[in-house]
Structures are given as C-alpha cells and as structure tokens.
C-alpha cells in the first residue's frame, strides 16, 4: 500500500434548491487544511488527503472518510482538522464526537 492512511473529503456541489450538500467551497477548504496539517507534520509520504465526490450522506456534511479504517466523520469544520490529524492520523484514536452513526443515516 502506497499510503498508510487516505483521507477523502467530500467536495460535491449540488444545484441551488436541491438536496443539501457538503459544498465545493467548504470541501476544498477542508482538503487544503488537511493537506497542510499533514505536510507540516512530515506525514505527507505516509498519508494523503484528497477531494472526493458525494458519499450520499449529505445531511451529515461536510463529510470526511479515512481509510483503511473506513471511519466516517460528519459536520467537520476547519477547527476540527488539527484534532483529527493529531488524534486519528498520528495516534490512531478516533474522534468519537465527529463519527457518523451509520444506524441513523437516511
């Protein structure tokens, strides 16, 4: 495996008036923040953050999914990035307050 962890950030943008979405603007800002935090910590050879399309859990967004664990975080804000990087990416501790409960989706 090329990367130990892969971080996907939804950047899907829906037409105005349709279903709520994570939004390209918020998603791109989160992607940039994850990339910067990973690079600043020297983790960019082990981990990769990138934008992704819709995960179809829009009402929980902005959404971030981290693999290989498959942990899905919802309502992620720029202020959460440092905590996710420090706790989840560096120390393998899931940030429980942001985890989306798959039993309550849709």
Strand order of the largest sheet: 2-1-3-4
Structural class: alpha+beta
In total, the number of strands is 4
Helix amount? 25-40%
User: How many helices in DSSP terms?
Assistant: 2
- What name does CATH use for the topology? Glutaredoxin
Instruction: Give the uncertain stretches in residue-range form.
Output: none
Overall geometry: globular
Order of helices and strands: EHEEEH
- The total tally of domains equals 1
CATH superfamily: Glutaredoxin
If you average the pLDDT, what whole number results? 91
How can the largest sheet be summarized?
A: 4 strands, mixed
Distance between the termini: 33 Å
Strand content: 15-25%
Rg over CA atoms: 13 Å
What is the CATH architecture descriptor? Answer: 3-Layer(aba) Sandwich
Provide the CATH top-level class.
Answer: Alpha Beta
């Amino acid at each position: 495996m090329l990367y130990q962890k892969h971080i996907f950030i939804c950047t899907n943008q829906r037409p105005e008036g349709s279903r709520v979405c994570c939004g390209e603007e918020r998603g791109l800002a989160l992607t940039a923040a994850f990339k910067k935090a990973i690079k600043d910590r020297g983790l960019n050879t082990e981990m990769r953050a990138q934008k992704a399309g819709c995960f179809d859990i829009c009402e929980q967004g902005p959404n971030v999914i981290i693999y290989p664990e498959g942990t899905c975080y919802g309502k992620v804000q720029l202020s959460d990035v440092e905590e996710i990087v420090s706790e989840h990416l560096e120390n393998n501790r899931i940030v429980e307050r942001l985890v989306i409960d798959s039993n309550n989706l849709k």
